[in-house]
Amino acid sequence: MKNFIVFIVSILFVWAVILLAQVDKIIFSHQFHAEDAGAECADCHEAANTSLTAEDNLLPPMETCYNCHDEDETECTVCHTNPDEAGDYPRYIEYPAKFAHKTHIDAGQDCLTCHEGILEKEDSEEESHLPAGSVCTDCHGGADLREDLATCVACHGEQFDFKPANHTVSWGKDHGIRWQIRENSCTHCHSMSYCQDCHQGDNLDQQVHPLNYNLTHGLDARANKENCLTCHQEIQFCNDCHLIEMVMPRNHSYANWSNFSDGGMHAREAKYDFDYCQSCHSDANADVVCVRCHGN
């Protein structure tokens, strides 16, 4: 029985290889035509100059190829892997139907702004060469979808569902992890203010940080201050909270932190690292803080 199954699988494999061998594939290298032949994008994709919709076929017809290649002398195998079953190059239509190449070309946009890297591709069918949505927002701005859909609707249409498939019921709990994995993926649809509106600077509850974060956040602040500054961009945020809660550094509670004879530990700390003192005691003029006790 085992040998019979192996035999059947082998037969199916052979047939699959034969069928795949019969499928025609267009042989075309953008790299060769751009670098070696010196062709421009418009030489082959002339129709893009007047295209106002994605329904237009911007792939060059064979007559365009004959502008450079001799029709009588060029072998079919130069472009076709199976000339006997010659087929057309597959069109990519999975992009907004209202997208107008003409509008972008008239605005002075270069083809490579959107189709970055296409001139280095040796196999035209290895990928679609369509730009990611983030490429659009590089020019059209990081639209905040809560307030302004006009930019996106212009190409996608009003019936388009802009909600990504991964925005499920648990997205509120999961999105932070996903943002850390792909840091720039959110800015395609959301401006930074969108995050800040929800994650306010004084929000240290479970929605952003662990339940006990009030007790442990100091460790993170020392170990990875830059990460804190992603949201809490001013040191005054720390100062305001610590003053309200009357939370002081541990060394401020020592009995000899301040005394009238020699200034105690705080005097020695100030002489050693006055900038560290200013991280909390940073009024408009740093000297004012000292003058409160020391006079003139």
Can you describe this structure?
By secondary structure, the protein is an all-alpha fold. Among the domains are: 30-94 and 114-129, no CATH class; 134-198, no CATH class; 248-294, no CATH class. Helix content is 43%, strand content 0%. It has 16 helices and no strands. The longest helix has 21 residues, at 2-22. It is elongated. The model has no long low-confidence stretch (mean pLDDT 75).
Layout of strands and helices, then pairs:
Elements: H1 2-22, H2 30-36, H3 41-44, H4 62-65, H5 101-106, H6 111-114, H7 133-140, H8 150-156, H9 171-181, H10 192-198, H11 213-223, H12 225-228, H13 235-245, H14 264-272, H15 274-278, H16 286-294
Category by helix and strand content: mainly alpha
Q: Count of helices? A: 16
> N- to C-terminal separation?
101 Å
Please compute the radius of gyration using only Cα atoms: 32 Å
What best-fitting shape do the alpha-carbon axes yield? elongated
